[in-house]
Design goal:
With about 190 residues, the protein is mostly helical. It has one domain. Helices cover about 55% and strands about 0% of the residues. It has 5 helices and no strands. Helix 2 runs parallel beside helix 3. The longest helix has about 35 residues. It is globular and about 55 Å long.
């Protein structure tokens, strides 16, 4: 029976479970963040506490980081389900399979992204690489201000459309995530 066990790194289910945990964490942050944002709509800013006002700015990068990591883990697990040998004991990804590049990982799994999906995957890649973790990218050129990359979701925003655009961002995240998980193979007996 011991021989039937596969290394954890080569278990698509382990990667899927990690993706699920990251996605749930992102959803908890989203619920808090978007709940505050909704109350800001229509000039209700007086009802927002100072902590909530800070959270409007501070929580979005964490949501994007966790969403990006959830999608990354789901995509890597899907690759492993097709070719377990790509995950060596030290988890070194073979060149060309993507690393943290979500667009490349998406395509490596046979998905064809729309231009908006590609732009969003690129934004999530930036969140995983730096925007969700650090105030500036590694090569920041001492810019006085660097915005959070949000792909197609905040092009020329006006106040009236921000809530709608943020809802679209969440829907895009959920849609990509669901598309990826729907391609996972059924669990084998030794992965339950």
């Amino acid at each position: 029976m011991e021989r039937d066990k596969i290394p954890l790194a080569q278990s698509p289910e382990a990667w899927r479970r990690t993706a699920i945990g990251l996605k749930r964490s992102a959803d908890i942050i989203w619920k808090r963040w978007f709940g505050i944002f909704i109350r800001l709509e229509g000039g209700q800013i007086a009802k927002v506490t100072p902590q909530e006002g800070g959270d409007v700015y501070l929580l979005l990068p964490s949501f994007l980081l966790l969403s990006g990591l959830a999608i990354e883990n789901a995509l890597k697990g899907l690759l492993i389900s097709k070719e377990p040998s790509i995950a060596e004991s030290k988890i070194r990804w073979k060149v060309g399979l993507g690393g943290h590049d979500l667009g490349t990982l998406f395509k490596s799994n046979g998905f064809i992204p729309t231009s908006d999906e590609q732009e969003f995957l690129d934004a999530l890649t930036q969140a995983v690489l730096w925007a969700g973790r650090y105030p500036v990218p590694k090569y920041h050129a001492n810019e006085p201000e660097i915005g959070i990359p949000l792909g197609p979701f905040l092009r020329n925003p006006d106040i009236a459309s921000v809530i709608s655009r943020m809802s679209e961002l969440k829907e895009a995240c959920d849609s990509l995530y669901s598309r990826i998980l729907s391609k996972y193979p059924k669990l084998r007996a030794n992965e339950t």
